[in-house]
Amino acid sequence: KKIAVFASGSGSNFQAIAVAAQSGILNAEISLLVCDKPGAFAIDRAEMLGIPALVISPKSYPSKAAYEAEILQKLTSLDVEMIVLAGYMRLIGPILLEAYEGKIVNIHPSLLPAFPGKDAIGRALAAGVETTGVTIHYVDEGMDTGPIIASASVKVEAGETRETLQKKIQRIEHSLYPEILEELLNGEEEAVQWEKSVH
Ligand code: GRF
């Protein structure tokens, strides 16, 4: 099965997914990286991994629909079946949502529905929660609002900083995302119902 990963930044989740696919843990082909930020480190990672990248700036298009239509054309030409968002800092619009209905997933660094949107880790820390985590969910037109597929919780320890918490969360993301993608693509749909706990 062919996947496109969308990323705007560092791309560490993109890399984790690509490595899982290349090593056979994830039975899928990462056909394309779509990156909306020229210069993002995710693009360098794609090059190192030998994965083609579509670097595409929304500013170069008259509308979001035109921007997404260009992406869609590329996805269609590659027979991409699923879109995996990994730090893609943009809402998905109707063009892609309709073409890939039920086939777009996202990972978010909180236990949704708590702390949707930007800086979820910093806001969870500032709110003083004892537990936060990671959520993988289907994507709809909202901001981190689609149906939840899986989550993993992370304890916030005394003296935790944004950096230490982010490190813990990312470590979990890098194993959880490939694992859940494998289930979604190749497992029994019913089997995808679990909760993990990491301390
Ligand atoms: C991840 O923490 C993910 O949960 C959030 O954005 C971050 C992306 O990190 N949506 P990276 O670009 O994969 O390193």
Write a structural description.
With 199 residues, this protein is α/β, with parallel strands linked by helices. The chain has one domain (2-198): Rossmann fold, CATH 3.40.50.170. The chain has 6 helices and 8 strands. The chain has helices spanning 12-22, 41-49, 64-77, 94-99, 120-127, 162-186; strands at residues 2-7, 29-35, 53-55, 82-85, 104-108, 131-138, 148-155, 195-198. Strands 3-2-1-4-5-6-7-8 form an 8-stranded mixed beta sheet, sandwiched between helices. Helix 6 links the parallel strand 7 (148-155) and strand 8 (195-198). The longest helix is centred in the last third of the chain and has 25 residues, at 162-186. Mean pLDDT is 94; it is low at 191-199. The structure holds 5-O-phosphono-beta-D-ribofuranosylamine. 5-O-phosphono-beta-D-ribofuranosylamine (GRF) is lined by residues 7, 9-14, 86-87, 107-109, 170, 173. Belongs to the GART family.
So, the CATH homologous superfamily? Formyl transferase, N-terminal domain
**CATH fold assignment:** Rossmann fold
Poorly predicted regions are: 191-199
Q: How many separate domains make up the residues?
A: 1
- What is the CATH C level class, in words? Alpha Beta
The 3D shape can be described as globular
Could you estimate the helical fraction of the residues in percent? 25-40%
Taken as a percent bin, the fraction of beta residues is 15-25%
- Rg calculated over all Cα atoms: 16 Å
CATH architecture: 3-Layer(aba) Sandwich
Strand line-up in the sheet with most strands: 3-2-1-4-5-6-7-8
Say which molecules are bound, naming each kind only once. Answer: 5-O-phosphono-beta-D-ribofuranosylamine
Structural class: alpha/beta
Number of helices: 6
Number of strands: 8
Distance from N terminus to C terminus (CA atoms, Å) equals 34 Å
Mean pLDDT: 94
N to C succession of SSEs: EHEHEHEHEHEEHE
Q: Could you describe the largest sheet, including whether it forms a barrel?
A: 8 strands, mixed
